[in-house]
Each structure stands twice: as C-alpha cells, then as structure tokens.
Structure prediction request, 129 residues.
Amino acid sequence: GKGNKQRLIPVGDVAQKQVMIYKDQVRIHQAPVKKAEDILFLNNRGGPLSRQMIFILVRRQAEKAGIRKKISPHTFRHSFATHLVQNGADLRAVQQLLGHVSITTTEIYTHLNQEDLRKAILKYHPRNR
Prediction:
C-alpha cells in the first residue's frame, strides 16, 4: 500500500474463487524471482508488477471494455470506498480499510451521500415544487 503500509482486507467469495483459478491455471506456470515468491501477480521476468505496469494494465482493460473515461487503479479504490459508504458502511471501517490516518480524509466519500440528500430535497420537498 501507499507508504509501504501493509493492509489486510476481506475478500468476497467470488474474488477468492477467481484468484484460486488464476493461481491454479496461470500463476503455477510462472517462476518467481527470490524476492517475489509471495507475490500473486508477476511481470514477465518473475518479479512483482510495478505501479506503472498495473496502471497500464488497468487502462488497457478499460479500453477493451469500451470505457472512454480515464481509469486508473485509484478509480477502483475510490469506487470501493464510495460503494461502501453509500450502502451504509461505518465510516471508521472504511477508514481502516483504506489505511487513512485521519477520518477527515475518509469523509470525502460522504459528499456523494450529501449530494443524494440535496437531490432528494429538491425533488420531493413540497416547498420546492
């Protein structure tokens, strides 16, 4: 993670299944270099994927999917946090999952809920009609 902080996060059943398929069908044929034996995704030389390569791979997959918006690995992180907050996750739990030191950093994800509230008031409040 950022700042070389290690984070452990829960992984859903579907993702776990896909990782196992990857390990059994792809990763088993790759020879990791000594420092990358515990790394799940490797580059062509058996080393860990660089930050830049992950960015390139995410971009390529977005293009293949017909997504025109600029996508980066951070887009996944932002979407992950936004979905958790919008669906009622505890902000402190989201803070811990993201590795934020300060809760105020995590609070940026609550603005979307505030926007939803604003839209609801504008649409449904009797004085606004």
Notes: The chain has two domains: 1-49, 70-129. The radius of gyration is 19 Å. Residues 70-129 form one domain. The CA atoms of residues 121 and 128 lie 8 Å apart.
